[in-house]
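Below is a complete specimen:
___
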Amino acid sequence: MTTWVLGNLKHRASSRTFVVVYAEQFSCLKRSSMSTFNYVASAQAPTAVNAAVKGNFIVKDRIDLIVSKETFVEVYNIENDLLSLVYQFNLYGRIEALETCQMQGRDTCSLFIFTDQGRYCILSYDPIQSTIITEQHGHPGHHPARLADDIFVRTIGRERNLVVASIYSGLLHVFPITPIPSGKGKAKAVNTLRPEPFAIRIDEFLILSLVALDNEPEPTIAVLYANERKRRFIKTYQLNLKIKSINEQAFGYQANARDSDYLLLPMPAPYTGFCVVSDSIITCHDKRGTYNSKSTSINFTIMSAYSDFTIDEEQNTIQCFLSDTSRVLYVLRIWFNINGAVVRIALESLGTVVRATAIVPFPNDRVFLGSAQADSTLIKLDSKPITVLDELLSLAPIVDFCLFDLDKQGRQTMVCCSGADNNGSLRMVQDGVGFLPKTELSMAGIKGVWTLKQKGDSSIDNAMVISTVHGTRILYIEPGTDVVEELSEFSALKLEESTLAIDQVDNLIVHVTPSGVRLVENEPNGALLDEWRPAPDKVITVAAVNGSQCVLSSGRGELICIEVKDNRLAYDAPKMLGHEISCLDISHFQKSYVAVGLWGGQHIQVLRLPDLSNVAQDASAEGLVPRSVVLTELDHVQYLMLTLGDGQLVYYRLGQQGLVDKKQLTLGTHSVFLHKLIHNNRPCIFAASDRPTMITSENKRLVFSGVNLKEIRGCKEFNNPIHQGVIVATDRSLVFGRINPVRKLHITKAPLYNETARRVLYHEETKTIAVGTSTVKRNIDDGSEHYTGWLRIFDARTLQELNAYSLLEHEVVESLCSLYMEELESEVVFVGTAIVSEQDKDQLPGRVLAFQVLTNYEYKLLDAVNVSGVVYSMKPYLGSIIMSVNGSLYFLESFKQDEESGKKLRLVPKLHSNMIALSLDTRNDMLLVGDMIHSMSVIKPDDSAERRLKKVASDYNPNYMQTVKILKEDLFLGADASYNFFILRQMSEDARRLEIVGEYHLGELVNSIKQGSISRQPSDTGDGGRLLYGTVGGSIGSIIPLEQDQYEFLVVVQQNILNIRPSIGNLEHRVWRMFQNGIRKAEPHNFIDGDLVESFLQLSYMEKEMVVKGSNGGSLLPCDVEKLQDIIEQLANYR
């Protein structure tokens, strides 16, 4: 007998109420078109790791990993070589610098954070309230000096209670780390005299690297800087905190630096000095020898990240890890003699990893590599090759993406071009639900799983029946205990055989194995009441049980119905169906039916029970055999669903006319098995496969939601005091958990192996994805780069590569577009490129290529035309193609098949009125241009026969654009390089100026905006004018149009939430969301911060009541808590 204790499994079953309307105010979301008023919310938080440190931030005796991701801070515990998220929070600001520091009298560390808007805060964790405390906050002060190109923040001293920062040119800012004053009376008065931050003026204006030197009697820093002649120097400073200045009396170290020096690495105490890194040499400056130096030559490279040094006292060495732009990980070791002087320095290559932005070493040769361009990884170094132990999934940067509904069932799929620097991938993103595992029991060879109710209590499951390849196993929970034990026998079940089907009727169990059907008592020592066996030369191959009825087949197309009557098994003559039976299911409808899958003929039949008369039938169009079938009722609609061997699902509505409304879609890549579940008190279907899917119904429309699991064999709900949720079976284990009612995105990765994805396009007719990829090789001698590009074709279902086309030497894809061409009677994919030349990077040429898409997934090259610039963007326009080539607009005027190569495509320049036209969007005869400097402009054709293009309206404010989108004929959305969204309107048809009608600081750099959504809304509702965007930081967001009354209501909700929840770090929400581009600032308007509004869902009920009442100076809302919750849940689900 085997025993498991399922500890800590108790939790409350959660339910969710979906709102229909609230005073008709939000019922029109699905009908809304593009609007001046918009709701912006994240579907996926940022995933790029910008910085990482370690410290005892949460618990004094545990060192955690702390990472920053754009505006988020996440704390991970490393246990059993896995990264476990223990806490996260977000700030109203982009995190530019993250450092640990130490408050006096505290046994845990604090975090010093500096944001892109020039504000700092010092944060600690309160273990009693499980919240973040703001210890200090503020602005270092407004100075006439300009903001530094690179910001450096370093903690100084062994006590780590001082932070020095280079923020403005010619200034050092010093931040004493002191706790919040406490005490009473005179003590309080004394404690309030806490040291304030101050600035020290220095002569160096262009600091390239700054480090703190620990083993010094006074706070000391070393800087690498360049003068106005671009010559480089190294200098040390000792800080005098009493006079808030540089200690002029102390001798500082000064030395010339190489022109290629760019990085300083400080030695840890008790050693003194620092290392200087250049592109071809590393030099160690040892203060014990009056800064005598030791050097080692290295191959040409540029380091992108480094770790702190760690000390090996036995070997008398120190070491740190470095990673370069080519993704190579190194270890730098320095050896010392007994006097502490440097005797040797060496750099060793360890292998290829991700391109790191942060490196944090941990004990036992574990190292965390944080990346802003790939998945961050926890690696093990005690083996070669390097072993990846765990990963933090990242979409960053999202360079481009496409959206498509593969099966036209309302299940949107997003495919992103993610990653950079030869570390790219395609990421398939789908909306779904999450499975939250609690406990896992190892168990190999599972074929199916069922549960049995406790005798006398139909609400409690106390036994699990697991069918394996070798027999049946019983896991039993004795009533009143939390111990799961495996029984060698249970009632009169035949455990030496695999179970085909099992179910209960009253206090009896019907058990089907290959050798027969048994009716037994439902208790561990129960007796056998009756048994039915097939003929001696037959075995049961498939069966289904529904309480008092059982249907089975023992081969040769024979179908038998057995009923439980008076504690006995009763059966009639079998029905011969002419073909072998592959699968069965019995309905739970008011009338009993059996669905039968067959190996031939009419592949699916529905028969009435118990007489087995035919009700409906159909044949598989592909001739494929059904592998699994269910009859179910969802949202008062009866369905028959079956799966085929290639992973496809076919489903029908079962009505008076039989099987109607046949539809088909793909759920997996191989056989899928369907299981009935009750989730949130509603029936649903769990499709177990390599891509598990939950099938539910909303408004009588099926909704297909991916589940974050892989290779599932079976699933069953389980209700017991020790565990309320579901059990899923894999090929190796039984996993107890629950399905999270909060929907989330599920991401599948398809690595590109030393390439970067640049542009992506979905082709509907062939269900393929065209991807422009490239790789870059760097010369180790001079750092020069050599680009190679391809157009690769992938299957949209599996992301398997189907074809590839090589481009010219140094040529890379910059834009993609498709158009149906009448003269060819087929779709043509156009590719715009850039030819990257090391000789003249300012005048890059390009090409336009046209590929005919054939039905066999082949892309046939029709022609290629040279152009005198980079083809930054291409869009369908006026029945042809418009493209931006540097600052000019070109139009595809004609395509002549009989012309010679290079002349078939006739491209005509139409307009030159831009600096660099980076982004285009079209609608009817309107063209919107986003310029690198000159914001947005609207272009239209004139009335002449040539239809010349002319600029009809422009935004005269300078804005460095990233991407643009036409919302309506007179409404235009732009995302700029300063992390802003803004909306322009052409007030009248004759107006030449585009007026600003909406502004909002998103805080992330948007690369692409597409119309659509990845939410689970049924397909017939449309996208409702929704937009989806992807960012450099790896976040995905949605823009939802609002009516004016909806906007005004949510403005009040937003402010009421801010009034009751002080921001972390005392960073102002209003200031954070202000439009700012370095030239002007403006208050945010006509945008709603959806992430702030949806934070209402995480508030306590008391806090929610305060929001509704408008506590702390807010406004009373015209609804109660429940109605407001419904509205916000609707918004969250709709994106």
Observations:
- The first strand starts at residue 3 and ends at 5.
